[in-house]
Amino acid sequence: MGIGDVTPALSDDIRHLNRAISIALNRQLNARTVDTLIYLQEVAVTWLKDRGYRYLSIPPDSDRRNNSFVSKLYGLFCHKTAATCAGLGWIGKNGLVINERYGSKLSWATVLTDAPFEPDEPIQESRCGDCDLCVRYCPSGALVGSNWTVKEPFKPIVRYDSCRSLKRDLKDFREKPNCGLCVNICPYSRMDNADREEGETFQCCTMAL
Ligand code: SF4
Ligand code: SF4
User: Residue 123 and residue 130: Cα distance in Å, rounded?
Assistant: First the structure.
């Protein structure tokens, strides 16, 4: 988890909640993961409530599809913004948050608050560098190949229609959110970077393909 100063990303009605507690689990997003993320959000909320701070929990990704009131809050704030502001990763050429240690396999939840936490150092530029593995191998051609930067928030990265059309066309993927190749092929997702020597590149992973 990390704390982000999300002031520039807030709409007027929630501008006072300018700190984001960004929570990630290194687990596939399934019902158990969602339950754990919600539990962790509740721990944070209890802490904030006991101290008189205001808060707003943004539900974990797949929880937005249920019919609860809280799921309607999903659209208010983006987990990716909380994660990058909290220094937990950058937006990769696959359109997902890439964490240096765990890649793009993390599942996310966010709690916004007015508690005056000291924010972590944000990440504001892509660190994908010259790598374009996900772009080259995406079977639907959905990935544009652009490097993300906070300075150009509307720069296209993923053609979501192309990604969805592949899911529609291939019945093997219908039970899954998408084909997932751009997650699994990412070198950052394919090794525990805690074990990587300083300065070592991820070339070993590309050679293993
Ligand atoms: S999920 Fe599959 S089709 Fe969609 S962007 Fe990733 S690699 Fe491409
Ligand atoms: S595969 Fe390479 S270009 Fe794609 S998100 Fe991972 S590091 Fe970035």
Answer: 18
